[in-house]
Amino acid sequence: MSNQVPPPLNPADSFPCIPAASFQAVFGPLNLDAEVPLAIGGDRHIFQHPHMPSLLVKVMDMQARAVYLEARPFKRWYKQYQRESAYRVYLNEISEYVTTTTRPSGVWQVPMARILGLAQTTLGLGLVVEKICDEAGNIAPTVADLARQGKFDAALSEQLDEFFDDLADAHVVLHDISASNVACGLNADGKQGLYLIDGFGVLPLIPLYAWSKRLNRRRIERKYARMRASLAQRFSLPAA
Question: In 41-167, which ranges are E strands?
Answer without folding.
Answer: 44-48, 55-60, 115-121, 124-130
